[in-house]
């Protein structure tokens, strides 16, 4: 369908970035004093969950943009996306599809009817650019990581309507769950870090997103689920007054048993700390950061 001609793919790559503008709130802007999350000149000393790191599988621009082009049909409306096969293959999920489906097929087309186009657009943007809108930037003056300034383009949407859930879900949670499915570990780290920088999120949205996270991650997940449990415990004064929280707890589910265990562990830590003058302040369940409520 697509010939492996260098000049064709070079032309495609020059115009590819413009396709992302259709699926995001506006064009990104950045300051000269800030650097991109995966800027090759960035040096991050501590590679823990609190400090983003550069992925080891950064797509080599010179080699991957000469491979065949694959068409991806996303969502029930079959919105079309196009990507280079080698870029997609940085995901084990797509690498397996490309190896198995295209060996004897002249039509390089992948169908993803259950995916959300806005989320897939972010995943594809990450595979090409190493980040997705709004980008994570480093503020040198404050020595902190923050989301890019969108003052000139309007606020970036923090939620996306999920047809399967029938309600708004935090975008970064959906990106995390999609990255889990596609086997892109570094994208999971990035999505979790970005979600921690969000603020002013309603309790109902947080609880809906927590349920989505539990439904779309394995029981072995120790990051996103713990993030929500720690958030609810730290913001318990807000959640205990929430009618939505009461209804969610009455509906039940594994999340609330995990929450009960987390609360018990937190209380045990506090009791242990009160008995020893040498014990540091009690910990809350581990989470990289929490969505700050206003």
What do you see in this structure?
There is one protein chain. Helix content is about 40%, strand content about 10%. By secondary structure, it is an alpha+beta fold. The strands form 3 sheets. It has a 3-stranded antiparallel sheet with strand order 1-5-6, with no helix packed on it. Helix 5 (about 115-130) packs across helix 6 and helix 6 runs antiparallel to helix 7. The longest helix is centred in the C-terminal third of the chain and has 22 residues, at about 255-275. The relative contact order is 0.11.
Summarize the main sheet: 3 strands, antiparallel
Helix amount, in percent?
40-55%
Helical stretch count? 12
Structural class: alpha+beta
Write the layout of secondary structure elements.
Layout: H1 6-16, E1 34-36, H2 61-64, E2 69-74, E3 79-84, H3 85-88, H4 92-101, E4 109-112, H5 117-129, E5 136-139, E6 144-147, E7 159-162, E8 167-170, H6 171-182, H7 185-195, H8 203-215, H9 224-234, H10 236-239, H11 243-251, H12 254-275
Parallel strand pairs: 2-4
Antiparallel strand pairs: 1-5, 2-3, 5-6, 7-8
Overview features:
alpha+beta; three-stranded mixed beta sheet; three-stranded antiparallel beta sheet; about 10% strand; 8 strands; about 290 residues
What does this entry show, briefly?
It is built from twelve helices and eight strands. The protein has 294 residues and is an alpha+beta fold. Strands 1-5-6 form a three-stranded antiparallel sheet, with no helix packed on it.
